[in-house]
């Protein structure tokens, strides 16, 4: 009994002092996180698309106009005159009208910016997945530790009650009650061990390079950021790659619309032609000129590009609304999760204080075993609620810092 009293008092002392660097505790090593994010398929795919956008920009800068060669050879036979060798050859190349090359380069530049920001956003999404999976594992592992301690407490209690029954100082009913409580605690332990194993499996499946050997770290005490939640929320908007990508896509769509309007006047083609007839008796050379005459088709394409540009601008505004809403949600969740954990901690301390009295009273014979078992179960439930609230608070605070590019992603100089 004394051992259980000492353990409970230690838990109360642990909960009383948050600690100065608890906010950084519990997170995986930064180098491992960077390697895990680099190896994630979604990040690699987005980086490949960024390379494709750079290649497309080079192609747009050069233009699609190429030199075309065309030639023919004939062997002509004329009655009573003989046989003649004849040929002709021509080179033709279209030329972009003034302003079109500039627009093509502008479209390519916007494409690169959009693709690079989408690549960074893919890294952000992978980091968010890592954050959620990480706290799922740590929270479940913390529950396992609590359930193991509960099983140990009930086993100690059962031994004490069984000894009292042997000494005829207690009824057999108390042994049955203690065994029932122990069975329930063992069931809870098996369930929490299963959840922890499942969370670890999911984390390893998504991030196989992340080192997960040994026992999961303890869930640290959540600490509000020194700069304040509102300051981090503002950085969520300022550093959003979603907004940057959407703005770049809108700029590219505007440039594409301008390019489509310019394309209503088709590009001319210039060329050079040489020919030889009647085995060289007739020879010639000349300059060729070709100019398509645009019509309704080009006008419709220009209207389509203008409508798509309007849609892209609206999408960019919607993205800004969504990111602003996400920042507000991040701040609200961080505040209420932290407050909920504080209430859970206060409730746990009160339950522990009550359990101490129940244990002392039962040992003195003034409290029935059923009352102590009820107190044990209530403390067990309060411990689980506290660790769940603590894990959710850490998840929310880390998510806010992640969205603000304060950890793992973004410019290293701007991280915490």
UniProtKB/TrEMBL annotation:
<protein>
    <submittedName>
        <fullName>TolC family protein</fullName>
    </submittedName>
</protein>
<feature type="signal peptide">
    <location>
        <begin position="1"/>
        <end position="22"/>
    </location>
</feature>
<keyword id="KW-0732">Signal</keyword>
<dbReference type="InterPro" id="IPR010131">
    <property type="entry name" value="MdtP/NodT-like"/>
</dbReference>
